[in-house]
Design brief:
heterodimer; A: 260 residues; mainly alpha; 9 helices; elongated; B: 150 residues; alpha/beta; 2 domains; 8-stranded mixed β-sheet; 2 helices
Chain lengths: 260, 150
């Protein structure tokens, strides 16, 4: 009995300790003032994290938009309201699917890569040699990746939403023959700039911060072995996905939840 | 390094353009393409459910859009401004306008029925022969009151 209690305590302390270390990594890497040459590092990371994620984002966005239009059309056409397809698809994408799916893809595509890269740097003692040379790895390695993640997520979400809405328009208007004016008009009447687009962007910004934080920390805190890196990479994807879904619920509750 | 700079720049630009697209194409108002069309007004006693950009149709064919919905404070009637395609510039002055519903629960639209006069409507003219929206509630009310009186 006592043994289990001790194990539970150890597990909880381990978790709290990890959270503390993660916060320290976060603050220390963002606290340092930007120096000359930092922009080049940041640019390289935006390329790695953002530009290279574009293909998967665009492809998924197009298929998701197309599928939403197809499903929405079959249901709405029964009651003769197929013009509402545009509005329905746009609201679903802007409020929920856009930020969440982009977040999940981003965690899988970019987060795992960042963790593996930093984990391998640690395993091959690159991080400690940097410290020996007087270069702060938090500043040189961690900070650009954190910033890049936070910059890329909202941009990727905006691209995801636009491509998905374009995909739904292609399927809905060009293929299924929904009236183009009703499709776009219903969308423009129903979608509000701040309420739908703005709040969706806030969500994606929060997801960007959380995902890149988890990815960077898991790499930095990984056990410096081959197995440790694989465990850390898995953890990044699992934790980020759970965090995105849980945070999405909380953010929706906070931003849209005036149910009284 | 140069390719990275350019691709990052293109990426950021694409993201911003997508935001602009979302802000101005997906949300917000503004009736596009005003060329090749003229404006007609119509006064209705009730336009519930009609929206800017709703369809204007003639014999079931869409010939225009609702451009503006206002209210005439003197007669307490709704004034609907319609943008009608120049292709149908020969609508008689006694053309009738009715607000109808697409399907059972679908959106509202204005249906025009041409009259027999020789004179035609011009840009800015007002259609007087109108019939406003009949809501489902109104129909049920009429039904109940008729049933009650029997």
């Amino acid at each position: 009995m006592l043994r289990y209690l001790r194990l539970l305590g150890q597990w909880a302390l381990g978790w709290i300790g990890a959270l503390g270390r993660a916060s320290m990594v976060w603050f220390q890497s963002l606290a340092g003032l930007p120096r000359r040459g930092d922009m080049t590092l940041l640019l390289k990371q935006i390329y790695q994290i953002g530009v290279l994620s574009l293909i998967i984002i665009v492809l998924s966005a197009f298929s998701i938009g197309a599928v939403l239009a197809l499903q929405g059309y079959t249901q709405l056409a029964r009651v003769g309201a197929e013009e509402s397809v545009g509005l329905g698809v746009a609201l679903v994408l802007l409020r929920e699917l856009g930020p969440v799916v982009t977040g999940l893809l981003f965690a899988g595509r970019a987060g795992s890569a960042v963790t593996a890269e930093i984990g391998l740097m640690k395993a091959t003692d690159q991080l400690s040699s940097m410290e020996m040379m007087g270069v702060d790895p938090l500043h040189r390695i961690i900070a650009p990746r954190l910033w890049a993640g936070m910059i890329c997520m909202p941009l990727l979400t905006a691209i995801f939403n636009s491509v998905a809405i374009g995909g739904s328009a292609i399927v809905g208007v060009d293929w299924l023959g929904v009236d183009a004016g009703g499709f776009w008009g219903g969308m423009q009447d129903g979608v509000q700039r701040w309420e739908d687009i703005g709040k969706g962007m806030v969500k994606s910004g929060v997801f960007g911060v959380v995902i890149s934080w988890i990815a960077v920390f898991q790499g930095y805190d990984s056990t410096p072995t081959a197995e440790g890196i694989s465990v850390a990479t898995t953890k990044t994807v699992v934790y980020s996905s759970v965090a995105v879904l849980a945070l999405d619920f909380i953010l929706t509750l906070v931003m849209y939840g005036d149910f009284n | 390094m140069r390719t990275i700079e350019i691709s990052v720049g293109a990426f950021v630009l694409a993201g911003i353009l997508c935001l602009v697209f979302l802000a101005f194409r997906v949300s917000g108002v503004g009736v596009g393409d005003t060329s090749g069309s003229y404006l007609l007004n119509a006064k209705f006693n009730d336009v519930a459910g009609l929206r800017v950009r709703s369809k204007v149709s003639l014999a079931g064919v869409t010939i225009g859009r609702v451009a503006k919905i206002g209210v005439d404070s003197e007669t307490a009637e709704a004034i609907v401004t319609m943008q009608v395609s120049q292709d149908v510039a020969n609508l008689p002055v006694d053309t009738g306008a009715r607000i109808q519903t697409e399907g059972f629960l679908g959106g509202r639209y204005i249906s025009l029925t041409p009259g027999g006069e020789e004179q035609v409507l011009h840009n800015g003219d007002t259609i007087t022969n109108t019939q406003g929206a009949i809501g489902l509630e109104g129909l049920i009310d009429t039904f109940i009151s008729k049933m009650g009186s029997k």
